[in-house]
Amino acid sequence: MRIVKMEPKLYASMESRVSRRKYTAPPAAEQLDELKRYAEELNEDAGGAVRIGLWADGAEDVFGGLSNSYGMFSGVKAFAAFIGREKGEEARVKTLCGYYGEQFVLKANALGLGTCWVAGTFDKAMAKRIAGVGEGELLICVAPLGAVPDSLSLREKMVKGFSAGRKRKPLEQLLRNPGELETAPDWMKSALAAARTAPSAMNSQPWRFTLLPAQNALAAQAEGRTHLGSVDLGISMAHIEIAALQAGVSGVWTEEAGTWTFTAK
To answer: Which of 89, 148, 176, 257 has the most beta carbons within 10 angstroms of its beta carbon?
Structure first.
């Protein structure tokens, strides 16, 4: 379990990426090829628990039309699907899909493509058919991919404004032991700041973190009853590790009873 092909652009994408819903063209062939290679590396690192795939055909049926996407998306010509492949451990699989899926989404952004994490406003039956979701697999989320206008559309501004209405919580509210923050190492502060900016369903920010300075580590848990909490937790974990690597600190994730701990080496 690691950040595959860490690069400065991946870190920069955490700040620059915004959810896009209006698309003007499909990804270029070379962009699709690079993303397919990257998805294969992510899938291999996930050890079979996650399958990320890309499809350039059928996206209009998955996202097009009021009945499928409630008019939220337009012009989608390609999409990615994030699929869990492990039975019996749904929360863990969803966390891993968030962790590896966010790496994929950030890579797409670094290549100049628009993206959006989507869990509900799409035709799930069609997406499953196109992605070949089989027995024992769980389609968790999808993401449209493509060229986007430089400026946000009116619909995108409205959705962004609604999400912004639920403002980011102060970091202290996301910590179980905020008193440790002042003396935490710089890498840990950067990692937590990056986790705070991670996308989450309806900007619910369903994460809680615990600083473990004696172990040079921090722990992360999903909080709340949202069924996407584990996915959002995985996304925040990717942000934590990318920010740590950007600060020159590598580490490993371990999991116990739903708590994931990142320990610096």
So the answer is: 148
| SS3 sequence of 176-202 | CCHHHCCCCCHHHHHHHHHHHCCCCHH
CB 35 within 8 A of CB 112: no
Question: Rounded distance, CA 60 to CA 114, Å?
Answer: 16
- DSSP-based three-state secondary structure for 21: coil
Q: Any residues with CB less than 8 A from the CB of 65 and at least 6 apart, and which?
A: none
Alpha carbons 163 and 48: distance in angstroms, whole number: 34
DSSP element (H, E) containing 143: strand 138-145
The per-residue pLDDT string of the chain (265 residues; one tens digit each, 9 = 90 and over) reads 999 999 999 999 998 899 998 999 999 999 999 999 999 999 999 998 999 999 998 999 998 754 444 458 889 999 999 999 876 688 899 999 999 999 999 999 999 999 999 998 899 999 999 999 998 899 999 999 999 987 666 555 555 544 444 477 888 889 999 999 999 999 999 999 999 999 988 788 889 999 999 999 999 999 876 677 899 999 999 999 999 999 999 999 999 998 999 999 9
> How far from 256 is each of 175, 260, 261, CA to CA, in Å?
19, 7, 8
Q: Are 122 and 30 spatial neighbours (Cβ–Cβ below 8 Å)? A: no
72, 36 Cβ separation under 8 angstroms? no
What's the CA gap between 137 and 125, in Å, rounded? 13
Residue 98 and residue 236: Cα distance in Å, rounded? 8
- Indicate the pTM of the whole model: 0.91
Q: In angstroms, rounded to a whole number, what is the distance separating the alpha carbons of residues 199 and 18?
A: 9
